Protein: Transcription factor E2F7
Organism: Pachyramphus minor
Amino acid sequence: ENIFDRSRMAPKTPIKNEPIDLSKQKGCTPERNPITPVKIIDRPQPDPWTPTANLKMLVSAASPDMRDREKKKELFRPIENSEQSDTPDSLQYDIVDDTTVDEFEKQRPSRKQKSLGLLCQKFLARYPNYPLSTEKTTISLDEVASVLGVERRRIYDIVNVLESLHLVSRVAKNQYCWHGRHNLSQTLKMLQEAGELQYGELMTFQHKEQDLEYKFGERKRETIPHSQDRPLLDFSEPDCSSASANSRKDKSLRIMSQKFVMLFLVSKTKIVTLDIAAKILIEETQDTVDHSKFKTKVRRLYDIANVLTSLGLIKKVHVTEERGRKPAFKWIGPVEFSGKTDELRGHSPTSDSLPGTERGACAQHQICASGKQRFTRHTSFNGAQPCEGTRTKVSSEPNSPHQERQDEYCSKMINLAAVCRQKIEEDTRNSSITSPFSLLPVPGDPDFCVNPLPQAVFPVVQAEVPSLSLPIDVSSQAPHPSMPATSKTENGKATLVPNQPFLCFPSSSLFMLCGGLQENNLSETLPTAGDKGNRSAEAQAAVPPAVCQKRSSHKCTSPSSPADDEEPAAKKQTMEQSDLPLSLVVPKKPFESPKAESTPGNGCPSAVHLETYRLDLASPAAPESASKESLDCQEQEKRSQNTDPDEPPLGNEHTSKENANQPFQPQYLYVQPTTGLSSFNLLFSANQAPGAISLASNQLPSLSVPCVMVPSAALASFPLVCSPSFTSPLSPVPDSSFSAAASMNFSMSSLASTTPVFISTTAMVTPSVSSVPSVDLQQPAHPALHLSPVLTRSCSAVKLDSPVCVGHPVTLLKLQQPSSTPLTPKSIRPAHHEAFFKTPGSLGDPVAWKKNEGNQTRNASSVQRRLEISGTSPD
DNA sequence: CACTCCCGCCAATTA
DNA sequence: TAATTGGCGGGAGTG
């Protein structure tokens, strides 16, 4: 009988760990198998393993003895134990054949082997850290539990923590969706922000823990009231729920996990002792903290800590105090997220610091189809919304998967920006104050000033970003000065392809994109909004966070996307975080640009940035890509630049030089979608012959001009950059985006009417720094806006010199929001950014900054109109 | 003995 | 009502 039962049970019964692994491979895990070192060793059986098989074997083998022992426990348990003997042993014990009791005992997996941490590792091993966006991995709790040979309860412990970090999300009843670490940095950033709100002050004093404790206590009291809801913005939902039904959710392991992580992120030392954490987390009744409660909390913290440890986010340490040594954990995960973005939603910069990131993976996460079924459960960081009255649902809404994604992008962009800034700042410091740039008139925008991010640590992009082109938009910094130039451009010259009927250049929306090319050097994307981007232009040089790049490249499409690349870490600079996203393109650059970096200190000459930006762009040019044409273009550009009165000499010089050196990358024009095309973005190659771009030609046979359509959504997040000429047809990257484009059907007719198009090989804008432009910018309201609502939201035009093209200034627009998703005003709003970036010294006034942004936005539209495309298209 | 934290009871939630 | 989730704390393993 027993046997029989067992057999039945078997399925359920957890298989031992070891065996499990094996089985697991075959089993469920969708993606990659765990790397795990599972040992195969043990099994006596040669057979193919399946979980069940193992069980059976075990059962048979174990038989009598085992049973007995186990009987006491439940069937399952015993079984496991017995099994373990087999498997676990592998680890520790060799396989001992005998079933002798003693042996058995020994075999019994030690406690460690059963630890939650180990279990978690096994769990994690089953899924890729950075799953491809396309694949959605679902996790079946039952399955996992059986595979890993543990009871479900344990799986819940793991999943709950992972869910709190958004590594997984619950899809349905026994099912979770695996997201991997794509969002991790964003999530952490959010937690950090939330943590600062809640615990910030406290942590400041961390050193003195005791003090802290007291403070915490007090704090708690204080904050709680309002915080109640708040505290967890991050947890928003949970909070809400908690508020409402305080019962379970409040205490939820998820929330505790988030709070625990917040403590680390807020802590300066990055070390949190368990007791403090427990006290803090007990929140509510802190006063009464009864011992038992405390103990319970600590137990939970251990559970959480084990999972976090498995994730490589923390490690155990000991803090010795007067009293003695206390258990504590140290944060060893990414810390940088730059910042402090205010924006609730999201933009966190994330640089994935994780080295391990897989290149292929796109940032995108998958969205679980089911969405949030349980609102309460989701822990979302919606932000600050007060959940109180409302309950979870409300809060949850905001988090549409979409938004989240976008947010991510934004955040990444932001990170880049931040990095860039930082870098810039550094450079600035290094460089004499009077960098050439300094000369440039600064619009007075504080905006331009770069702030160094204190902590930003950006890991180099590393492999992750393989190909992308970075959005250059950032570079757009130049903006204001360029205004005049811009105006010129406006006029329009957009040359069109004569043949093309539908091309128009209207005001609104043309952009040129430069494709960066292969160089790996730098690709950067600009983060956010164009303006900001401007500043950060340099940043572009810097390496964008891998993530960003990836995304950008992938999504965006930039044909130009270069091949891959790694970016030099050094380069990174921080950009602003604006919400916006934007641009596309990107050339990659060579590092060299350091010079560019040098900016006048705080001064903030945006112009400078621009220049630098150019340089960067130029430099990167991939030799390959550089084609004759490109060269020509460059030259022309240079000339033009030189000629331009407006441009500041310095910038020009730099640019020219670099340009000369660099080859160019393919450039594309980006057309904003206007009303008609709201959903599409067109990219045209400026210089190329129609055929050049594979996609374009293929997809749009009818058109003579090569162009690529990209869903606006894809582009939305990127800043646009223009570059005048470009030669190389490379578009290694484009794939995804293109493909997307391809999929879309579009009829020319539709396009023709509404869209403006653009074209030109080079856009000429004078890079001049003159203040005038700025004025102009401001003036115009949003002319463009009406055209494309989406775009309108945030557009700031920035001028740049085209990086590629040597001298040409380019205007950039920055779109804040992705078209597809409606943004809330908040999100759009740039205002907060300052805070993030601003560093004490370097940044100008935040206020000013904001102002600028606003101005820019307006300007952008105006700019667009004005934007003139000087270059003639070869076509 | 102090740390850790496994284990699984059993209540809250869901289906 | 049954199943799923998950809070909770006893108490065992470790050092």
